[in-house]
Amino acid sequence: MEILHTAAALHAYTENCRRAGQRLALVPTMGALHAGHLQLVEAAAEACDVVIVSIFVNPTQFNNPDDFRLYPRLPEADAALLGPAGCTVLFLPSVEEMYPQPSVLHFDFGPLERVMEGAHRPGHFNGVATVVSKLFHMCRPHQAYFGQKDWQQVAVVQQLVQDLSFDLELVSFPTVREPDGLAMSSRNRRLSAEARAVAPRLYEALEQAAAAVRSGLAPAQVQQQAAAYIAAEPAFTLEYFEVADAQTLQPVATREPGRAVVLCLAAHLGGVRLIDNVVVR
Amino acid sequence: MEILHTAAALHAYTENCRRAGQRLALVPTMGALHAGHLQLVEAAAEACDVVIVSIFVNPTQFNNPDDFRLYPRLPEADAALLGPAGCTVLFLPSVEEMYPQPSVLHFDFGPLERVMEGAHRPGHFNGVATVVSKLFHMCRPHQAYFGQKDWQQVAVVQQLVQDLSFDLELVSFPTVREPDGLAMSSRNRRLSAEARAVAPRLYEALEQAAAAVRSGLAPAQVQQQAAAYIAAEPAFTLEYFEVADAQTLQPVATREPGRAVVLCLAAHLGGVRLIDNVVVR
């Protein structure tokens, strides 16, 4: 596995791969890798000749400076995991390398980002779209891999790819969970033992809500029940719990037959912000 | 010269060129070609192995439906000019080909587009940035050629390339003028004989203003004198005349030594909107 630190080196590397007719995959990450990330890398290695994993804690997508500061950074441990998983190139740039000048351009994804993460983290998806565009241009991938735990992110990046005619395929993968149901997340490392013990309640709330949606309960009631279930454990502060159209991400008042809905939540637990979602098809 | 109509065909063509190690140039145009365009094509042919000229009257950059409807469209005449100038591929897509779905994403370039064309044509630079991004992704050029008559457009596209780390070089070319000084423009074809006869007054106003700036006259006075000179011919309605920093495009109150200024104007003449500019270094 090669480790590259500069955009110029990555540009040159991927240009050569393209010229050699190789298929390239990109797995963009913020590091502190877990089994969810590694599953993306393994899938990418199955499908492509070259797998580039980027590890970059992107400052422009953090609206909360503490969240940025405390985000786990473990590049050596990450590197040790990536080789065996099938990573060919680890791209590990500095902030200065990714942003030689501050960005002027700002992305707006309209209704797609007026809800959930976009509504609660102002500027988040502008930062995501900016860094993903840069990585796409540096890596020239045929495929880019994303995890569905960030459901809204996948929707925004899909819109970016479509609206700007990026010549690549976006591959999204189901959320990988701990045995007790907690969605794998780099932020889980920051949970205390007490917080970790109650954390699976979020997925329980989602599973109960999914069952309620399937049984025909109205979204407003589903939302209310889920919020009450989470609030019963006082360690949680719920930021949002939404029943939304799985494509448009807009809240649904009544479930339309044939349209998938996604149940999405964000909650604070012992100073850590967690998100999760479940799709009902 | 090959003529391609679909994004898929262009994608495949340019991928092959890249694999063969050829250097690609893109000259994006809206057609109704004049000597200014052809100079870009000739320069591109000097520098690169493959020259792709796109002709696409991009609906998303027009805020005025009449301007879009009346924009000259002469694909056969254009095609006849392009081969001899060194064009390898003419890309002639339909609106449906470029926009299979309406765009959701919106670009905002901040202060760069709060002035001049951006201020007077709401949404214009979003449309420009969108279509240019699409063309960059379809053409995979090493170089992209733009004319300086659209000074603000060059600045916006430069910002786009920088902020999204597009791996290409932007080449901008000085405005080509008619013998009487009128800036070449596809819209000039729409001028009546009477309008055409007075049209050079715009460049005269710019040249006088440039001399006044060089002589140390304050920008506010320069602006006033230029507006008065243009208004002396009642066929003109001046939309703006700005003395701006050539890089930031923000209006300058006093000229700073060592910083180039650009004098930019837009004016209506016989139902046609014309723009022009002159740089003072």
Kindly describe this structure.
2 copies of one chain form a homodimer. Chain A has 281 residues and is α/β, with parallel strands linked by helices. Helix content of chain A is 41%, strand content 21%. Chain A folds into 2 domains: 2-173, HUPs (Rossmann fold), CATH 3.40.50.620; 186-280, 2-Layer Sandwich (Pantoate--beta-alanine Ligase, Chain: A,domain 2), CATH 3.30.1300.10. Chain A has helices at residues 7-19, 35-47, 65-70, 75-85, 95-98, 116-120, 124-139, 151-163, 193-198, 201-214, 219-231, and strands at residues 2-4, 24-29, 50-55, 89-91, 106-108, 143-147, 169-173, 236-245, 261-269, 272-280. The first copy, chain A, has a 6-stranded parallel β-sheet with strand order 1-4-3-2-6-7, sandwiched between helices. A 3-stranded antiparallel β-sheet of chain A has the order 8-9-10. Chains A, B: ATP binds at residues 30-37, 147-150, 176, 184-187. Chains A, B: Beta-alanine binds at residue 61.
